Every structure is written in C-alpha cells, then in structure tokens.
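Supplementary Note 2. Why include the ligand at all?

Several targets in our set were suspected to adopt different conformations when bound, so apo predictions alone were not considered sufficient. For every target with a known small-molecule partner we therefore ran a joint prediction. The input for DP6 is given below.
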Amino acid sequence: MNIACDIATTRASATACANVALVKYFGKRCETYNLPAAGSLSVTLQPLRTTTQVAIDGQPGDDVVYLGDALASVPFTARVSRFLDLLRQEAGSTSRVVVTTSNNFPTAAGLASSASGFAALALAATHALRIPTTPQSLSAWARRGSGSAARSIPGGFVVWHAGSAPDGSDSFAESIAPPGHWDIALVIGIAATGPKADSSTLAMNRTRDTSPYYRAFIDSTAHWLAEAQQAVHARDIEKLGDIAEHSALAMHAATLAARPGILFFNPTTTAALHQVRQWRRDGIGAWFTCDAGPQPKVLCSAADAQEIAERLRQVPGIQDIITATPGDGATLSG
Ligand code: DP6
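The joint prediction is reproduced in token form.
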C-alpha cells in the first residue's frame, strides 16, 4: 500500500481500530523517537474504531481539534499539535490543521484510544500533507504519536519490532497473520469509567527509572515474543493465552515495584482475574490480560466469546462488556 499523493488534497479522512497487546510494550529506549525497549505483539480489534478528518486550510495559527462534537481539552490538543509539528516539518508546511476525531466506543470507558487515534491521525494527516508513505513508514509515523498506535496501522495479528536503528526507521509494526487467520475474541469488561490515575507514558518511564523488576521484564520479552508468534501461526490458543497472561502479570509486577508503586488493578480487576482462572479449571479456554488501567480483557476462541461475556458480566463491579474480534488495518475513508 503506497498512499498516492493527490495534488489537490487538503483534506483527508481515515479510520483505524484499537488493539490489545498480548505481549506487552512497557518501556522506551528512546523518548525522542518513541522507541520501545522490546518488541510486542497485538491483535487489531473491531469494532473499536476511531475516525478522524484532517483539513489543511493554509492558515497560520494554532491547530483546532474537535473530539466528538466538542472542542478537545488543552492537553489533548497540545499532544495532537506536537505530533502534527513532526509531519509539518517533514512536509515543509506552516499551515494550521483542523482535526475532527471521534471514537465509536465510549471514551469514558477507560479503553486506550491513543492507539486507534494516532493511527487514524497519522494516515489522514500524511495524506493531506502529501507525505509519501509505505505501510512501514506510516506505522513508524503513528509510533511517534503513541507507541501502541504503530500496531493499529496493520490489521489482524501484529508484531511491532523493537528495531535497533537510532532514528527508529526499523521500529515499525507489521501484520504476521490477517484477521481471518484465526477466530479468536477479546472480551473486555468495563471495571471503571473516568480518567485513569497514571498515564501509560508516565507509568512506563517511572517503572524504567525505579523498578528493580523492569530489566527482567524487558529482557524476557524477546523470548515470549518469538513464542507468541509461533502460537499465532500454529493457532495454539493455550500457548498464546499462557504467554499473554504471563506478559501482563510480569508488566504489572514491574509497575507494582516502581517507586512509588503503580497499581492499575481495582478490586473488580482482581476478581475477574481469579474468575478467569476458575473458568479454566472448569475447562473453558479463557486467559486474562490487562493494560495501564483496570479493565480486564479475556482472550478466548470466538466460539466461547458469548459464554465468557455472560460470565464476565456476573463479576461484581463489571459495568459493561465489549466483545471484539480481529479487525482490519487503518484505511482512508470517504
Ligand atoms: C500497557 O502506547 O499508550 O497498553 O508510547 O507512551 O504513548 P506511549 O504509550 P502507550 O502504551 C501502551 C502500554 C500498554 C501495553 C501495550 O499496549 O503494549
């Protein structure tokens, strides 16, 4: 996919799905280029989607960002503008950008929207600014907005390579299997709404700087990444689930041991984790993962998703359930 340059284009619209990592990214080796300390593996997830329109109107001045129907907050707009500055520099543009973005999942649900958000923005803005891209360079651009956004450019089962180049040119994500490769599902429980206490960026930097378990987590990741890729290719859900649960718990162990310690789980998260293990003892294939927030996410085969959703809904404190399945990569939209 080479995004064609259209001389008349000053507007573009793009859409991208969220993703959930089964081998976690949690640490940077370079903050300037937003480079990860280790590789990671994720599934791009429908129906969780961001759609973003970008208009380059040739006017100088501050960018204008709408989130849903309202003007976005100052910190949100500032983060978008910092990302757009990188693209403007590449394109030799001084124009402000008007961005209109919306998620089809509740932002208040505390699900990470930065991955789908920066993936959709990277695609729409590079197109509108006429920056030529390849799938790899587009993923690397999205990475500059938010690391996990690199993984929302490709579809299906995705690996983000740690890379070793100082400028990050070899740190991009690519699909290792298309969405139709394997009928799995992620059943997501909403265990809390409202803003989270610690952003993933802050949490991973503090963990890197202060946790005695950070190095062990990073050093073990390459092994689990290779094993997880094999599990995806072999459609071995027991192996992938076991690695996913381990990677998540190892990440949370590292954050817990930071100074001050970072505890993303709430009582509902912990209850869900215990339940998932009980379901496994009952013979149901279900494995737990959790990111930089309290929402439990359960990996299972698509055939078991309804049963898991009904069970997860019964966990005290679970407010809502979203069932997601492997989805397509980012695309330009009408
Ligand atoms: C726990 O991609 O949000 O979800 O690169 O600083 O924007 P920045 O971090 P972000 O971190 C995601 C962390 C995670 C694990 C993962 O998605 O791999």
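The longest strand covers residues 40-56. The chain is about 35% helix and 25% strand. Comparable summaries for the other entries are listed in the accompanying table.
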